[in-house]
Amino acid sequence: MRLNSPKINIMHKACMKASKSMIRDFGEIEKLQVSTKGPGDFVTAADKKSEKIIIEELLKAHPDYGILSEEAGEINKDNKNHRWIIDPIDGTMNFLNGIPQFAISIGYEEKGEIISGIIFDPIKDEMFFAEKGNGAFLNNSRMRVSNKKKLKDSILVTGGPKFGSKKREEIFKHYVKISNNVDSSIRKFGSASLDIAYVACGRFDGFWQWELNYWDIAAGLVILREAGGYVDFFDSNQKLPNKKNIIASNSNIHQELKDSLLKKNIE
Ligand code: 2AM
Ligand code: CA
Fold first, then answer.
1. N-to-C CA span, the chain
2. What are the tens digits of pLDDT across the range 32-55?
3. For a disulfide at 10, which of 34, 61, 78, 238, Cβ 3.0-4.6 Å?
4. Which residues have a beta carbon within 5 Å of ligand 2, which is an ion?
5. In sequence order, which residues have a C-beta less than 8 Å from that of residue 17 and are 6 or more positions away?
6. Ligand 1, atom nearest to 70 Cα
7. Listing from the earlier edge strand, what are the strands of the sheet with 113-121?
8. Residue 130, CB half-sphere, CA atoms under 13 Å: how many?
9. How many Å apart are CA 110 and CA 120, to the nearest integer?
10. The domain at 6-142 falls in which architecture?
11. How far is the CA of 191 from the centre of ligand 1 (A)?
12. For 215, what's the count of Cα atoms within 13 Å in the CB-facing half-sphere?
């Protein structure tokens, strides 16, 4: 770890601890030794176990800090100045099916702004992290977004629609529209936090997705910005943490990607 920040150290410790139990549980899924209740319940239990470890670790460091977490909801609700935003397993569908593409995502927020964040892929042992003003890192190396100049040459990643989404048709229309604009294909990897992390380290050039939760993207916001990328939201009339339709990309293609997505007349 190059970044010697107290907050990163706390998040890192929590991630390492939670990932041990997560890796064990993932091994069980791979061997198909899931409980008789079925893999869904098993994953929920794994999710909660991981979350409990992370929360315990974070509260040990700062008992008074606020927490917003996918399963547990809000803790120390009144602390608006210091808050952790946690997704204990982002990419649960992948986890459930034995696909090694999921992550722990923890963001640290001060007065509503994400200041630092960690996205940890325990299977590939990849730790993406950043703190405002100090750059972004992948394990021990500094990372930067790609240098692709045109949307046409880009590799993009997206996700959704969620099951039962009312925006289903619209989301598919966007997909068709963007795929008509790019020569390379679009990917769907199933973990929004890792999708953003992959844009931050230049593997993908851009990412967009509708209807995400704050914990899916919180850590990614600072990581991408510190890696030189741009983050924007479709629903610009909403304030964070309610903004859930995200566009994240390198700075060169950002405007083109945004224009393509936001054009009113979608055929
Ligand atoms: P999750 O794995 O923590 O549920 C998949 O496209 C990405 O979208 C994942 O990061 C997933 O997070 C997120 N997502 C959020 N809400 C979702 C939902 N209701 N259904 C599917 N994916 C969802
Ligand atoms: Ca998630």
1. 48
2. 655 566 677 888 889 999 999 999
3. 61
4. 87, 90, 216
5. 53, 54, 57
6. 3
7. 73-75, 66-69, 82-90, 103-110, 113-121, 126-131, 136-138, 141-142
8. 27
9. 21
10. 2-Layer Sandwich (3.30)
11. 7
12. 22
CA 91, CA 68: separation in Å to the nearest integer?
18
CATH number of 151-262: 3.40.190.80
> Any residues with Cβ below 6 Å from ligand 1, and which?
87, 90-93, 159-160, 162-163, 190-192, 212-213, 216
Tell me, rounded to whole angstroms, the distance of Cα 50 from its chain centroid. Answer: 16
| Residue nearest atom 17 in ligand 1 by C-alpha distance | 162
Over residues 110-151, the pLDDT tens digits come to 999 999 999 999 999 999 999 999 999 999 999 999 999 999
Residue 85 CA to residue 61 CA, distance in Å, equals 15
H-helix or E-strand spanning residue 19: helix 6-30
Please tell me the number of the ligand nearest to residue 85's CA.
2
Record the pTM.
Answer: 0.95
